Amino acid sequence: MIFDYAFTVRASLAAVADFHHDARALKLLSPPPIVVQLHLVEPMANGSIAEFTLWFGPLPVRWRAVHSQVAAQRGFTDTQARGPLRAWQHTHSFDEVAGGVRVQEHVEYEHDSGWRGVLSRLLFNPPALGFLFWYRGWATRRALEK
Prior knowledge:
Elements lengths: L1 E8 L3 H9 L12 E8 L7 E8 L2 E13 L3 E8 L4 E11 L2 E11 L3 H10 L2 H19 L2
Antiparallel strand pairs: 1-7, 2-3, 3-4, 4-5, 5-6, 6-7
């Protein structure tokens, strides 16, 4: 499955890239009621790892992401190495536009079959992803627009 979302931030390309290249921003970019617990956050680079738990209320969802295609001020890709879905690859792209920076979010994902797939379909369906990325746009603008 494919999910695409884009938003514009009135900030410099450097500010947007720096914000998103810091894996700790995941805490700011996750809407309530999701709580993010970071376990391992390596500096953003090709092959760097972020391990975290997404708490959906009392339900913990462990995730290990590996970063690739890291380009200063252009974006990066995070790929689920371990987590709730069969596959998840999320590409973040940053482009200067009139009045700011356009952030493009492109996610290619696949659910498992069976009970595991039922859970991932409940948590990562198109409306849930729409809300998640809308919130991320709002949170990014809130953090960076002065």
